[in-house]
Amino acid sequence: MESDFTVLLVEDEPADVHLTRMAFKQSRLLVNVYDVGDGVEALAFLRREGKYHDAPWPDIILLDLNMPRMDGKTFLDHLKRDETLKRIPVIVLTTSEAETDVMDSYNLGCAGFVTKPVDLTQFLKAIQNVEDYWLTLVKRP
């Protein structure tokens, strides 16, 4: 294993959480994946509030758009307005292919937008591509 990275997965669908964890387990890197079910929990995690008082600082955030309580766009808006949190790269990982979702996400400051493939093999490949780019190639803040 080359290095140690932390990913915060903001996803309310247990099957997608499982698949994402499975994809990172196949990694040649040591990737620690933490998951929360919505934007409210994600902000608590990042601000180390309540049960997240000892949460690690993520290298990247993988963000679903469609979630209960606080959706991905609202979370992204809160995150990018926070001086402490705004430099964490956020990759939107969603089933949406809507052009408005793509444009809104980039306008709110996401670093990338990936539509979740429905095919298992393609999903695993998409996560591998995110890993290759964001955890290996790019220099993060």
Automatic annotation (TrEMBL):
<keyword id="KW-0597">Phosphoprotein</keyword>
<feature type="modified residue" description="4-aspartylphosphate">
    <location>
        <position position="64"/>
    </location>
</feature>
<dbReference type="InterPro" id="IPR052893">
    <property type="entry name" value="TCS_response_regulator"/>
</dbReference>
<dbReference type="Pfam" id="PF00072">
    <property type="entry name" value="Response_reg"/>
</dbReference>
<protein>
    <submittedName>
        <fullName>Response regulator receiver domain-containing protein</fullName>
    </submittedName>
</protein>
<dbReference type="InterPro" id="IPR011006">
    <property type="entry name" value="CheY-like_superfamily"/>
</dbReference>
<dbReference type="InterPro" id="IPR001789">
    <property type="entry name" value="Sig_transdc_resp-reg_receiver"/>
</dbReference>
<feature type="domain" description="Response regulatory">
    <location>
        <begin position="6"/>
        <end position="131"/>
    </location>
</feature>
<dbReference type="GO" id="GO:0000160">
    <property type="term" value="P:phosphorelay signal transduction system"/>
</dbReference>
